[in-house]
Amino acid sequence: MRVHPSIAALRGDNASQRLAAGARAQERSAAMCRVREEWLAQPEVHRVERDLEAYANGAGLEACPLLLKLVMDHTAADEFIETLCARVLAAVERHPLGEAPFRYTAAHGLTTLQLFKSAGTTLNLAAYEPLGNRPAPDSALFADRDAHEIVLRGEAEGIVHTWSGEGAIGSLPMRWTRGNTVRSRARTEARQVLRVERTLLVLQLCRAPANPAPTREVDLATGRTRSLASGDKSASQALMALSVLGALGDESALGVMEETALNRSEDKDVRWEALRQTVSLDTARGMALLDTLAARAVDALARPARALRAQLLSSQPGLRALLEETP
Q1: DSSP conformational letter for 55
Q2: Is the pTM of this model over 0.90?
Q3: How far is C-alpha 77 from the chain's CA centre?
Q4: Are 249 and 281 within 8 A, CB to CB?
């Protein structure tokens, strides 16, 4: 086979190949970003974005007419998304390796594309893929987040749960199809998709407060809380960091942990985790920290600290000597 000298030279020049590949990647990225900018520049899309910002700042949904229409009117929502998809797909045809210029998450059976975000409010496009029947759940997650959803395509079955905060949970089997809307109120309502017959495409409007309450995993049979998870992303990251430091046995972090536990402006769950890890890493310092928190007159952790101290001293009387040694 005859190869043109220029092609042969390029093949042998790895640096040139890398530069060419990098230039193409930059061109693709720029082209896909232009698609998003051009879409956002459309007057109607811009008005939806302004409505979302107002909603994020506390306005009622009824005061945001375009946003309200998107989550209540199937024709309006469908046209809105079709316009976006047509632009993105046309760009991907021109740049086959291009990616949609939106933040997204992808997990087994679920992909979510974030169209807009303002503070704790997002407008997302979510796709649930058929995965066969799932086992009936024995718990549900109740988050401090209001959600309005409308089904654009597909069919699925699931359950809507209602919980007052105590006692049994009310559960209602549901079937969702094109045009159906779903409302989930913060902390009291949750929905679970259990069986997807045809890919379920959903437009989701979600709003969480600036300092969301913890997400609760609640037992469906008893209504009892199984576990809590911080509703604050930064707090979740701090919790994970503290857990990792504790698992590594990093005693150099004890000072930071003590400061965190004593900081009243810090997230309560983060402070409690810092206390737990301090007790685990250095029992003497941990018991002293526990005693300090328990003695505070005004502190959200004072009462649970007193309860934990009493429990530890009851189960392990030897720890009392550590408190007596504390200056």
Answers
A1: H
A2: no
A3: 23
A4: yes
